[in-house]
Amino acid sequence: MTAAQTINGALRKLPIWPIYLIGALPPVWYFYLGLTGGLGVEPIKEFEHRLGILGLQMLIAVLAVTPLRNLTKVSLIRFRRAMGLLTFYYIAAHLAVWLFLDVQIAAQIWADIVKRPYITIGMVGFVLMIPLAITSNNLSVRKLGARWRKLHKLVYPIALLGAVHFVMLRKGWQIEPLLYLAGIALLLALRLPILRRVGWPMRPARQG
Amino acid sequence: LALGSIAGPAFAAPELGEPNSFEDITSYNNYYEFGTGKEDPARYAGKLTTDPWAVQIDGLVERPGNYDLADVLKGMDIEERIYRLRCVEAWSMVIPWNGFELRALLEKVGVQPSAKYVAFETVARREEMPGLYSPVLDWPYVEGLRLDEAMHPLTLIATGLYGRELPNQNGAPLRLVVPWKYGFKSIKSIVRITLTDKEPPTSWNKANAREYGFYSNVNPEVDHPRWSQATERVIGGGLFSAKQPTEMFNGYGDEVAALYAGMDLKKNY
Question: For this UniProt entry, which segments traverse the membrane (chain A) (predicted)?
Answer without folding.
Answer: 14-32, 52-68, 88-111, 117-134, 154-172, 178-194
